[in-house]
Specification:
By secondary structure, this protein is an alpha+beta fold. The protein has nine helices and ten strands. The protein has a domain of about 150 residues: endopeptidase domain like (from Nostoc punctiforme) (endopeptidase fold (from Nostoc punctiforme), Alpha-Beta Complex). The chain is elongated, with a radius of gyration of 66 Å. The N terminus is likely disordered.
């Protein structure tokens, strides 16, 4: 038997739900049958340049970078905390120190006030303070006593030195006189006698007159202890010339120095006396660095340059 019809009549239903020959579908099978388009085909990532090794190297670099950043954070965290703690301590110490200082100062002021309030005042006589004390074998000498003892000691030493100088000068003068007596042929008045006569006669005195008189004895030989025209030593020459103007001087360089007035060299005039600082020699100042003196044994009175700068100028008659 032949059946006729259209192609549409021959089509089988697309989704039969139940047939006599088929078994019932499970729920999973039904879903797969109804919605096959839902299945998602996994899309693989595009291959990275350089292949799998390059990708692994990039991931390793990113991992290392992240690990380094983590280590830095772990290292810096304690440092930051320490700096913060130090700053906090610095800020907090100053007020605490100031408070401590203020507290200490307040306590010291309070103690000082207590001592002042409870202090006992008493006075001691000046006589007691200046007096010496002695107890248990120990003693204390007042400063006034020590000063007095020192002054007495100094005075005694000065007196002893003066006495020794006087004795030395006397011995020197005696030796000079003895020597001069042996070698002198002079029979006229002594320098002291001449000075007394000139003073009584009120003989005019001037430095130019002294120079003129002193020049009269140029060439007189040096004689130790000599004090007359037969022979002079240095101080005997000065003594004899000044005696003629009523000025009596000792026969000694140090004593003549003490009898005169020291003047600046800028004020010195011919006729003043040059005295060596060590007291060993003197002579008449003649200006321009020159001296007129009785020099030494074997020499004679002359004018010559001053050979040292260790001297000063003395003036008599003022």
């Amino acid at each position: 038997m032949t059946q006729t019809g259209s192609a549409a009549d021959d089509q089988t239903p697309a989704n039969p739900t139940n047939t006599a020959n088929d078994a019932p579908l499970t729920r999973r099978a039904a879903r797969q049958t109804e919605a096959p388009a839902r299945r998602i085909t996994p899309v693989r990532d595009a291959p990275l340049p350089g292949g799998r090794r390059a990708a692994q190297a990039a991931r390793a670099a990113e991992t290392a970078k992240a690990s380094s950043s983590a280590r830095k954070r772990r290292f810096l965290a304690p440092i930051v905390l320490t700096v913060a703690a130090g700053m906090f301590g610095t800020v907090a110490v100053a007020p605490a120190f100031a408070a401590t200082q203020q507290t200490g100062s307040t306590a010291a002021d309070a103690q000082r006030q207590v001592r002042t309030t409870q202090a006992q005042q008493f006075s001691v006589s000046d006589a007691v303070a200046l007096a010496g004390t002695s107890r248990d074998g120990y003693g204390a000498t007042a400063q006034s006593t020590l000063d007095a003892e020192a002054a007495q000691k100094a005075a005694a030493e000065q007196a002893a030195a003066a006495q020794a100088d006087a004795a030395k000068a006397a011995a020197t003068q005696a030796a000079r006189a003895q020597t001069a007596k042996q070698y002198s042929s002079y029979s006229g008045p002594s320098a002291n006698e001449i000075a007394t006569t000139a003073a009584a006669a009120n003989t005019p005195f001037s430095l130019p007159a002294v120079v003129a008189t002193a020049k009269q004895y140029i060439g007189t030989p040096y004689v130790f202890g000599g004090a007359d025209p037969s022979g002079f030593d240095c101080s005997g020459y000065i003594m004899y010339v000044y005696a003629q103007y009523g000025i009596s001087l000792p026969h000694s360089v140090p004593l003549q120095d003490a009898a005169g007035t020291t003047i600046p060299e800028s004020q010195a005039q011919p006729g003043d006396v040059v005295v060596f600082n060590d007291g060993s020699h003197d002579g008449f100042y003649m200006g321009n660095g020159m001296i007129m003196d009785a020099p030494k044994p074997g020499g004679s009175v002359s004018i010559r340059p001053i050979w040292t700068s260790s001297y000063h100028i003395v003036r008599f008659g003022i």
